[in-house]
Amino acid sequence: MKYWQPKYETMGHAELKELQLTRLKKTVAATYNNVPFYARRFKEAGIRPEDIRSLDDLKNLPFTYKADLRDNYPFGLFAVPKSEVVRIHASSGTSGKPTVVGYTKNDLETWSDLLARNLTMVGLGKDDVFQNAVNYGLFTGGLGFHYGVEKIGAMIVPSGTGSTTRQLEMMIDFGVTALHCTPSYALYLAETAREMDIVDKLSLRVGCFGAEPWSSNTRKQLEKILNIKAYDSYGLSEVMGPGVAFECEEQDGLHLWSDHFFVEVLDENGEQVSEGEKGELVLTSLTKEAFPIVRYRTGDITRLLESECSCGRTTVRISRLLGRADDMLIVRGINVFPSQIEDVVVKIPEITEHFQVILDRNKKMLDEITVKVEITENAFTGELRDLAELQKHVEDELQSVLNIRTNVELAEKGSIPRTEGKSKKVIDRRNAL
């Protein structure tokens, strides 16, 4: 069994808790002393850094929400001077400005080590060739994995996104053994390779997939077609980026690195759930310098699993994500909220406030989003040209807000089902494939 940092990956529970408390105290002091937002929140809760005497005291600290990041755009939550921030990343927000996160030199070293742990955990090393087929911009997935691959000494192929035929050509020419991309794009690569009859020419053995939900059925398809082991990767830019949690070779839950992140899984009342019960994942960073975050409500639903794993690692383990606490959808790696769509719909007088979101996968195994809307009675002129213009207008408005191409289907008023309870606004058919 190979470990990147065996001291921390296999640390005894008592020693780990002692380390967590030391780091938690430092994080709370840093946020209190250097981030006005946290100083205000802590004072409102009647808490000072010296009140943190045990890990149980964490529950007395206030939560941090996604809205708090947007409200403090761009650098309001940074705990170090800008002169110490060597890189920023940003994620798409629910609306308006993105959420911006920063990293010191030490933060980048920590991040690289976390990815190195993950890659080593799934059997990768300096003899591997790793193709990183994700966006290299402000999205954390590209550079996050890139430096982790370099850290373990493997060869990185920074292929980025697009040009599927070229991606497959690189895999063959460079002898690529490991791939990182979204699972939906991996399916498209797999199907294309099969259509081109070149699967036998590939040297792939490991796939690292994340940034969007994917089913056990998708895993089976990828492993069967590409002859690989497919591993789930979990991360979020607000806490670090990719590398927060990862599956080991057992493929039975994700190891979440407890020496860098304190994990809570909470019920609807904010109480810690028992092992095996589902709840919302709440994370506190323990080592981040530029952008420490306290009790961040991720919105992701998971289960706490037994920490003992036959791989020998003793960190907290969580199940693969079971859904969202809010109504956020992830489409091609982009966060989409039905509330965003609703905001667009209600501003267009020619359509009613009723809508339905339909998610599918196309023949290329890429996510497609269709918004079905009802037109008002007075909007129907009988001219097809007018309907086409209305359809394009709604599509353009949605794309400007969601930052993703959206298909719009115009429907007759009253055709979208009404219910007494919560309406079925989203029909997700992606995992049926």
Automatic annotation (TrEMBL):
<dbReference type="InterPro" id="IPR045851">
    <property type="entry name" value="AMP-bd_C_sf"/>
</dbReference>
<dbReference type="InterPro" id="IPR000873">
    <property type="entry name" value="AMP-dep_synth/lig_dom"/>
</dbReference>
<dbReference type="Pfam" id="PF00501">
    <property type="entry name" value="AMP-binding"/>
</dbReference>
<dbReference type="InterPro" id="IPR028154">
    <property type="entry name" value="AMP-dep_Lig_C"/>
</dbReference>
<dbReference type="GO" id="GO:0047475">
    <property type="term" value="F:phenylacetate-CoA ligase activity"/>
</dbReference>
<dbReference type="GO" id="GO:0010124">
    <property type="term" value="P:phenylacetate catabolic process"/>
</dbReference>
<comment type="pathway">
    <text>Aromatic compound metabolism.</text>
</comment>
<keyword id="KW-0596">Phosphopantetheine</keyword>
<keyword id="KW-0436">Ligase</keyword>
<keyword id="KW-0547">Nucleotide-binding</keyword>
<dbReference type="InterPro" id="IPR011880">
    <property type="entry name" value="PA_CoA_ligase"/>
</dbReference>
<dbReference type="InterPro" id="IPR042099">
    <property type="entry name" value="ANL_N_sf"/>
</dbReference>
<dbReference type="GO" id="GO:0000166">
    <property type="term" value="F:nucleotide binding"/>
</dbReference>
<feature type="domain" description="AMP-dependent ligase C-terminal">
    <location>
        <begin position="333"/>
        <end position="430"/>
    </location>
</feature>
<comment type="subunit">
    <text>Monomer.</text>
</comment>
<dbReference type="InterPro" id="IPR051414">
    <property type="entry name" value="Adenylate-forming_Reductase"/>
</dbReference>
<keyword id="KW-0597">Phosphoprotein</keyword>
<protein>
    <submittedName>
        <fullName>Coenzyme F390 synthetase</fullName>
    </submittedName>
</protein>
<feature type="domain" description="AMP-dependent synthetase/ligase">
    <location>
        <begin position="83"/>
        <end position="283"/>
    </location>
</feature>
<dbReference type="Pfam" id="PF14535">
    <property type="entry name" value="AMP-binding_C_2"/>
</dbReference>
